[in-house]
Amino acid sequence: MAALQMDADALTAFLARDFPQVCDQFAVERAAADGVTIRLVVGEAHLRPGGTVSGPAMFALADVAVYLAILSRLGPVALAVTTNCAIDFMRKPAAATDLLCDVRLLKLGRVLAVGDCLIRSVGSDAPVARASLTYSIPPDGPRGAAVIPPGT
């Protein structure tokens, strides 16, 4: 298992610097060698008719969470991109409740990373969705990753 390269504070700073348009929607709850937990701060923009969090909002949470799990192990990686996602919606999440996504990286190779996610409403252990994502890691730089220099 690769050592942690970015902790929760570093991941939060990365989001604020490189993704200011969405950084207020996500919070890094935990970053450890065995995975990360990311919170979706549910707001009006995440809801759909019927009083629930939309599927696209849950996809965004899973996608951001796996990306941050990869960064936590490799450091800031430029151009790492999602190549595949499969998501199962299992039950209706509460509309007025944040969501938590627990990510476990199943593979972190030179070219591909595969992550498994469980999404649940805060205060509940029952998953509302499960997702599996594959990311492509660019071929330059250390461990096959193009690293973003700090402060850029």
Structural class category = alpha+beta
Proportion in β-strands = 35-45%
Walk across the major sheet and give the strand order.
1-2-6-7-8-5
Shape: globular
**Low-confidence residue ranges:** 141-152
Number of strands: 8
What can you see in these coordinates?
The chain has 152 residues and is of the alpha+beta class. It is 20% helix and 37% strand. It contains 2 helices and 8 strands. The strands form 2 sheets. The chain has a 6-stranded antiparallel sheet. Strands 3-4 form a two-stranded antiparallel sheet. β7 (112-121) and β8 (127-136) form a beta hairpin. The longest helix has 20 residues, at 55-74.
Keyword list:
single chain, alpha+beta, 2 helices
Summarize the model shown:
By secondary structure, the chain is α+β, with helices and mostly antiparallel strands. The chain has helices spanning 8-18, 55-74, and strands at residues 26-32, 35-40, 47-48, 52-53, 81-89, 99-108, 112-121, 127-136.
Question: What is the topology?
Answer:
Elements: H1 8-18, E1 26-32, E2 35-40, E3 47-48, E4 52-53, H2 55-74, E5 81-89, E6 99-108, E7 112-121, E8 127-136
